[in-house]
Amino acid sequence: MGGVGSGNWYRSARKTTLDQVNRIDIRYMKKQNILKPGSNGNFNWARNGKPNGSIKYRCHDYFLQLNFSYRQLGHEWQTVEQRISFDRTPCHYGGERLWFLCPNCNKRVGILCCDDSKFLCRHCHRLPYASQHQQRLTRLISQKHKLGEHIFASYAHGDGLGKKKGMHWRTFSRLHARYQTIEQDWQQHMTAYLDLL
């Protein structure tokens, strides 16, 4: 049985996104009817059809107990026991909604993820969504094209030639420097995004 630190769980220099880590979702647990005190079992994950981690859980009245093994690259396996507290909020039409309390920041969340040896909220792990990289790239390319069409006499497919007629050289120099900054920022984000694929 692979632990949380097995397989693709080795840390790397790449920026990990939320889509690349194992998560526990309290809404899924509620649907599966496994939040009753005393219920226990295993959470199992798979990536590309292959097992990618398994942990034991046991539900109590006020917390969820997790037990799993974790290993960093080049280190021995460690046994991890983590207790995650529940919080409850009333629903408008009766009943209550159950939440996890992040063990680090105590924030009320529905999903906890594990990027190392602990399940925490995505903010504490500083995990962006993969779509955030895509959105940033889209914004940058849009800014670049808009500025390029504004300052160059001829602009197509990200390449510009000459200063637009009627534009002062001082203005062109300032806006061209901005254009180059956007281009560099786009290249850096594109490299980071490709590293994630």
Plain-language structure description:
The protein is of the alpha+beta class and 197 residues long. The longest helix is centred in the last third of the chain and has 28 residues, at 169-196. It has helices at residues 26-31, 122-125, 130-151, 169-196; strands spanning 22-25, 40-47, 50-59, 63-70, 78-90, 96-101, 108-109, 111-114, 119-120, 152-156, 159-163. It is elongated, with a radius of gyration of 24 Å. It has 2 domains: 7-125, no CATH class; 130-196, no CATH class. The strands form 3 sheets. The chain has a 6-stranded antiparallel sheet with strand order 2-3-4-5-6-7, with no helix packed on it. The protein has a 3-stranded antiparallel sheet with strand order 1-8-9. The chain has 4 helices and 11 strands; from the N terminus they run βαββββββββααββα.
Mind describing the biggest β-sheet? 6 strands, antiparallel
Structural class: alpha+beta
| Overall geometry | elongated
Strand order of the largest sheet: 2-3-4-5-6-7
Q: With helices defined by DSSP (H or I, 4 residues minimum), what is the helix count?
A: 4
Helicity range:
25-40%
Estimated radius of gyration: 24 Å
Pick out the low-confidence regions. 1-14
* Number of beta strands: 11
Beta-strand content bin:
25-35%
Structural domain tally: 2
Order of helices and strands: EHEEEEEEEEHHEEH
Query: Termini, distance in Å?
Result: 27 Å
